[in-house]
Structure prediction request, 372 residues.
Amino acid sequence: MDYETLDFKRSRWNRTLLNGFWSILLLSIFLECLYLTITELPTGAFILHFMVLPFLLQLGTLLAAETALRLLSDKFQDYVIILTSTLLAFIIVDIHDSITYLLIALFLPVMVSIFYFHPKKLLIAYFNTLCSLYLIYWTNGAINSDITIVGMGTITVMFSVFTLIAWGILLRGRELMNHLKTYLETNQELLVQNVWMDKLSKTDALTELYNHMTFHEYFEKLIEQNDTNELSLQLAILDIDNFKQVNDTYGHRAGDAVLKCVAELIRSRVHANDFVARYGGEEFAILFTDKKMTESLHYIEQIRQEVMIVPHDALSGKPVTVSIGFGEYVPFEGKEAFFNRVDESLYRAKSSGKNRTVVAALPDEDGSSRLA
Prediction:
C-alpha cells in the first residue's frame, strides 16, 4: 500500500502533537511548583536545577521544532516531531534522575510514531528510545548506580515488546486500510454500474434522449405539480414525415442517422428545464415547464423550420420535415386527456399537408374539444 495515502491532514496532526508537547512543558512547570512546596532541597537550588534549567532546555527544543516545521518540507516534519519527543523525554528523565520509573517516558517517541502508521518512522523512534536509554545510563551517575546491567536488559526487553505491539498495531492498521480501500473501490464500481444501468433504463440507446417509459413518469409528476401549483406546462409531439419511405428507400441505417440528427437538433434548441424524449419510432416529445405558451410555440416553430433545411448525408443531401402537435395543459384536465388532445393535433398536422405545427383545441367544460 502507498504510505502517502495515509498522510491525510498530516500537517494538522503534527501541529496537534507539537501543541501537546507545549502542554507537557506547562504541566512540568506546574508539577515542579507543587514539589517546591514539599522539597527538602534549598529553594534556590531546587528552582535552578529542577525548574529553570529544564524549562530553558525544553523551551529551546520546542522553539527549534516550531522553526523546523516552518522551514522544512512536509516529508521531514514527521521526523522533527519524533526527534522533539525524544529530546523532551531525555531532558525530563535526565533532570529527574532520582525518579527511576520516569524512564518509561523514553518510550514517548515510539508512541508518537504510531500516529504516522509508517514502519520506518516506528523503527527510527525505537532507535531513538534505545539511544536515549543507554546514553542516560552511561552519562547519568544516579541512574547508573540505581539500575544494574540486568535491569537495563529488562527495560530494553520491555521497550522492545512494546514496540512489537506498536508494530502489530501498524500492521493491523494497514490491513484495515487495504480492506477499506478495496471496499470503497468495489462500492465505487457498483455505484458507477448502477448509474450506468439507471441511465440505460431511462434513455434511448440510439438518440440518447429519454425513452417512452421515462417520459410518462416525468409527465405524470409535472401534471401533479401543475394541478397543485398551476405551473405552466406545454407539450409538443413531433413526427418525422414520410419516415417509412426513408427506411424503404435508403435503408434502416440511413433512418437511424436521420433520427440521431433530428434528436440532436431538438436537444440543442431546448433549455435546461425542458424535457425531451424519443416517444416512439420516429416520434419525439418535448415538455416545456417554465415558459409561456407563445414562447414555447416559438421554439417549436424554430425547430420545425431548422429541421426542414438541414441536409442529411445518408439521404444524399436531402432534408426531412416534421409535423408537430402542440398544446398547453389546462388545470385538472388530466394526463391522458391532455396527451390525447395534443396527439389529435399532430394527426391534424399530418393529414393537412405535413411539415406544419397545429395547436391543440382547448377542452370544453363537458370534456369535448374546441379550437384554440
